[in-house]
Amino acid sequence: QDVTQYGLYITEDDGEVDWDFPCLDPREVIGKFEFASLCLAEMCPADRARHDPAAIAKVEEDMSDTTDSEPGQHEMDLMELHTIAMSAPLYKSY
After folding, report:
1. Closest residue by Cα to residue 41 from 28, 24, 63, 56
2. Which domain holds residue 58?
3. Closest to 3 measured CA to CA, from 42, 55, 29, 58
4. pTM above threshold 0.85
Protein backbone atom coordinates (compact mmCIF):
# COMPACT_ATOMS: atom_id res chain seq x y z
CA GLN A 1 0.00 0.00 0.00
CA ASP A 2 0.88 3.65 -0.31
CA VAL A 3 2.82 4.99 2.71
CA THR A 4 0.80 8.21 2.63
CA GLN A 5 -2.13 6.15 3.95
CA TYR A 6 -0.36 5.76 7.31
CA GLY A 7 0.32 8.19 10.14
CA LEU A 8 1.99 8.37 13.53
CA TYR A 9 -0.40 8.33 16.48
CA ILE A 10 0.23 9.03 20.17
CA THR A 11 0.20 5.93 22.37
CA GLU A 12 -0.58 5.42 26.05
CA ASP A 13 2.08 4.14 28.46
CA ASP A 14 0.84 0.58 27.88
CA GLY A 15 1.32 0.92 24.09
CA GLU A 16 -2.37 1.32 23.20
CA VAL A 17 -3.12 3.94 20.54
CA ASP A 18 -4.87 7.06 21.87
CA TRP A 19 -7.51 7.53 19.17
CA ASP A 20 -8.76 10.74 20.85
CA PHE A 21 -5.95 12.61 19.10
CA PRO A 22 -5.40 12.97 15.36
CA CYS A 23 -2.22 11.65 13.80
CA LEU A 24 0.86 13.84 13.98
CA ASP A 25 1.57 16.18 11.09
CA PRO A 26 3.75 14.23 8.65
CA ARG A 27 5.67 17.37 7.70
CA GLU A 28 6.91 17.95 11.26
CA VAL A 29 10.12 16.61 12.79
CA ILE A 30 9.21 13.63 15.01
CA GLY A 31 11.66 14.60 17.76
CA LYS A 32 9.79 17.87 18.23
CA PHE A 33 6.92 16.06 19.96
CA GLU A 34 9.10 14.27 22.56
CA PHE A 35 6.80 11.27 23.04
CA ALA A 36 8.23 8.06 24.49
CA SER A 37 6.39 5.92 21.95
CA LEU A 38 4.31 6.40 18.83
CA CYS A 39 2.29 4.00 16.70
CA LEU A 40 2.35 3.78 12.92
CA ALA A 41 -1.23 3.00 11.86
CA GLU A 42 -3.49 3.41 8.86
CA MET A 43 -5.04 6.87 8.92
CA CYS A 44 -8.76 7.35 9.42
CA PRO A 45 -10.51 9.22 6.55
CA ALA A 46 -10.58 12.51 8.48
CA ASP A 47 -6.81 12.43 9.09
CA ARG A 48 -6.16 11.42 5.50
CA ALA A 49 -8.19 14.38 4.24
CA ARG A 50 -6.48 16.77 6.65
CA HIS A 51 -2.96 15.79 5.57
CA ASP A 52 -3.51 15.18 1.86
CA PRO A 53 -3.47 18.46 -0.07
CA ALA A 54 -4.07 16.53 -3.30
CA ALA A 55 -7.46 15.38 -1.98
CA ILE A 56 -8.46 18.95 -1.15
CA ALA A 57 -7.26 20.16 -4.55
CA LYS A 58 -9.25 17.35 -6.22
CA VAL A 59 -12.44 18.35 -4.39
CA GLU A 60 -11.91 21.99 -5.36
CA GLU A 61 -11.23 20.94 -8.97
CA ASP A 62 -14.34 18.75 -9.01
CA MET A 63 -16.38 21.64 -7.64
CA SER A 64 -15.13 23.96 -10.38
CA ASP A 65 -16.17 21.37 -13.01
CA THR A 66 -19.78 21.43 -11.81
CA THR A 67 -22.18 22.44 -14.54
CA ASP A 68 -25.56 24.14 -14.33
CA SER A 69 -27.21 20.80 -15.13
CA GLU A 70 -26.34 19.69 -11.58
CA PRO A 71 -28.08 22.21 -9.32
CA GLY A 72 -26.88 22.06 -5.74
CA GLN A 73 -23.88 19.83 -6.49
CA HIS A 74 -21.44 22.52 -5.38
CA GLU A 75 -23.19 22.78 -2.01
CA MET A 76 -23.22 18.99 -1.64
CA ASP A 77 -19.45 18.84 -2.29
CA LEU A 78 -18.86 21.52 0.33
CA MET A 79 -21.03 19.64 2.82
CA GLU A 80 -19.09 16.42 2.19
CA LEU A 81 -15.76 18.17 2.82
CA HIS A 82 -17.20 19.79 5.95
CA THR A 83 -18.49 16.43 7.22
CA ILE A 84 -15.06 14.83 6.80
CA ALA A 85 -13.42 17.70 8.69
CA MET A 86 -16.00 17.59 11.49
CA SER A 87 -15.51 13.85 11.98
CA ALA A 88 -11.90 14.51 12.98
CA PRO A 89 -11.21 13.73 16.65
CA LEU A 90 -9.96 17.28 17.11
CA TYR A 91 -13.54 18.58 16.86
CA LYS A 92 -15.24 15.91 18.95
CA SER A 93 -16.16 16.77 22.51
CA TYR A 94 -16.19 14.04 25.11
Report:
1. 24
2. 3-91
3. 42
4. no
